[in-house]
Amino acid sequence: MTSATEPTTRYRMRVDRVKHIVMEHTKLNDAKALALAVHMVHELDTVPERMR
Predict the structure, then answer these.
(1) CA dihedral 8, 11, 15, 17 (to 10 degrees)
(2) More confident residue, 6 or 35
(3) Residue 3 is assigned to a structural domain of this protein
(4) Is residue 41 assigned to a domain?
């Protein structure tokens, strides 16, 4: 028996971590928390390295 699973990337792990934190501290549903997490991770990735 084989299962078709999506490989977990480091990006996906970061998004999932942020989504989990957002859901712990807000009343957003899963889809809205995921959308916010994707946006937050994208914005953090655009911060220049010297400013992090």
Answers:
(1) 70
(2) 35
(3) no
(4) yes
